[in-house]
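Annual report, structural modelling task.

Input specification for the adenosine-5'-diphosphate complex:
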Amino acid sequence: MRVLKFGGSSVANGERIAAVAAIIAEAARADRVAVVLSAMKGVTDGLISAARLAEQGSEGLKAAIEAIREPHFAAVRALFAPPDQAAALTPLAVMCNDLEEILHGVELVRECSLRTQDLVMSFGERLSCRLAVSYLASQGLSAALVDAREVIRTDERFGSAAVDFPTSYELIHRKLAGIDGIPVIPGFIGATPAGVTTTLGRNGSDYTASLIGAGAGASLIEIWTDVDGVLSADPRLVPGAFVIPGITSEEAMELSYFGAKVIHPYTMVPAVEKNIPLLIKNSLNPSAPGTLIAGSGAITRDGSRPVTGIASIEEISLVNIEGGGMMGIPGFAARIFGALARDGINIIMISQASSEHTICLVFRTAEGERALAALNRELAPELASRRIARFELIGGLATVSVIGENMHGTPGIAGRLFSSLGRAGVNILVIAQGSSERNISFVIEEKDHTKAVRTIHAEFLGRPS
Ligand code: ADP
Ligand code: ASP
Ligand code: MG
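The model returned the following structure:
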């Protein structure tokens, strides 16, 4: 079996959905396929803003709901002949009415918990899949809508729930084995053991695709998006970024974790566990070969390049903890990590000076204030006794990561990297290198972000190799 996942831009309107159906039809001629779809482009953002408006009791709610309904109805008008439109519209209209009622409830209580927001967001993928199933049927393809909430089992961390792999794999396997046609599965959503709707974090449909692939024992997971594959850098930052024909799973994991939006960071986990390759393809340009992500044995690469790709994240903050109070005290780092973990805060990067005099922690700005509060609580005794100095949150930063399997054992990479940034006048605040030597990451001011990424791209990935 092959899993085909199509992102929001691939199902953005009727014309795009028709193109996707053609890709599915061709794949289904060669293989058994399962399809995972995102919400139509912009719909998840629209659902979140509708939830906010409902919470505020804003007049704008009606228009916000209309902005979700209309693209689906417009796609039906584009895809179906007039006599067939009513049958395709009815289930979508019913779902939109359900959504409206839920949002009306939010409006009444003026409160939208993360749990309710997950339910609201789930409508995006459920609507796009419902529409696609009707259209595939009209094209003579027998497709069956699978409710992802019956097969993706998660905990209750609403907004970014953790998946129970063994249970989900078992449920996926059983469900798909009982379906004759093409299963069409909404990405991004799951449910708790009690059946409460959850989401897997923004951009999570890629993750659903690899979970489905792992559960079904697929031979390939295809991620269809709006670029020709994994590029050497974010094409919005580096106009000269080019498609990488093949990367290892570890490189893909690092790239996505450090900001390459083309795949959700957890996507690689089920795929690696079950040894399933991924193929990143462009639904706007299906004949382009794409990027293969697989174990290193299956990847042929340009041996002359030490660096494979560059990823980066904006809206980063850091905290620098300094003072003699941590010197030689075992368990100090464990206390810091424990305090942050208890509050569910994700540390992106850590750097400790060898004198043990400073420890620097890097977070997403959205989590920065909570991180600062957790650290102040945990370190209150050391702060009171002045064994460590007061610390603050420094915002307005970006992380940049240079990733490449070939960096391992190649001397001089860091020298070249930081010299080129020095020449470009980019100031480096923190540096971290994984012991795998597959990744060098550093923190800079956000204003230097584009310049830094372009400088490194020119240094290591400028054409020709
Ligand atoms: P989808 O809706 O298909 O899930 P996304 O918008 O989530 O698509 O991801 C694809 C986008 O990721 C591309 O349009 C591109 O702008 C961005 N992107 C960032 N870094 C990279 C990279 N290294 N390679 C390819 N695309 C990247
Ligand atoms: N629709 C969700 C989002 O916009 C999930 C996805 O598209 O992957 O985040
Ligand atoms: Mg995506």
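The pocket of magnesium ion (ligand 3) is lined by residues 7, 203, 206 (CB under 6 Å).
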